[in-house]
Amino acid sequence: SQQGEEDPQALSIQEGENATMNCSYKTSINNLQWYRQNSGRGLVHLILIRSNEREKHSGRLRVTLDTSKKSSSLLITASRAADTASYFCALDFQKLVFGTGTRLLVSP
Amino acid sequence: GAVVSQHPSRVICKSGTSVKIECRSLDFQATTMFWYRQFPKQSLMLMATSNEGSKATYEQGVEKDKFLINHASLTLSTLTVTSAHPEDSSFYICSARDSRTGGAVGTEAFFGQGTRLTVV
Question: How many alpha carbons fall within 13 Å on the CB side of residue A17?
């Protein structure tokens, strides 16, 4: 399957804590993207990381990519209640193939 | 960022009727758009790739005659669920990449807000 597997499936933390989500995949990729989805809404792009990159930052987000292990991680630092959402990795072929997702709950 | 408008956001229809969902790129052109289906608390599953001016490419297991896709212009793709049944109830989302940036691998995809279809 081309779909990425994410863990954990669900994560519950307190505001101020860091949240780490992992994505593992089986095929070769050129790029991997991370998206966020608020409940019942569309998706918002967070970060794109290319296969020749190991780490990328955007604000409180940090994404890593290890192509040898076929895995990526998304770290949200100093989380806020507004970060509560589902997070998906997406393998970037001509079409985006989404991972299984992590549901993050940040409690005030 | 670029905007993709999806309409309607919610629709309830009776079994046996057809429902059309529109996906428009408001400030960019998209030669290719993608249609996804999402069940509660699950991931997005790609249904088909919509190609402007040509036939859509359907994923394995997706019924072409049931989910009709038309991509008549560079800014509009439609998904019609024909003869809808309760099992078609789901959340449908479209997405597109900007053709000006190549619209291909390695670019950001923009998503509509989704359509919640309920078939009664």
Answer: 13
Task: Kindly report, residue by residue over B47-91, the tens digit of the pLDDT.
Answer: 999 988 889 999 999 999 999 999 989 999 999 999 999 999 999
Distance CA(B9)–CA(B88), nearest Å, equals 16
Alpha-carbon dihedral B36, B28, B56, B19, rounded to 10 degrees:
60
- Could you give phi then psi for residue B100, rounded to 5 degrees? -65, -25
Considering all CA atoms of chain B, what is the largest pairwise distance in Å, rounded to the nearest integer?
A: 42
Query: Which residues of B are less than 8 Å from A43 in CB distance?
Result: 44, 93, 95, 109, 111
Could you say which of B49, B104, B111 has the minimum Cβ distance to residue A42? Answer: B111
- Determine, for residues A101 and B105 on separate chains, whether the beta-carbon distance falls below 8 Å: no
A40 touches chain B (CB under 8 A): yes
When the pLDDT of each residue in chain B is averaged and rounded to a whole number, the result is 92
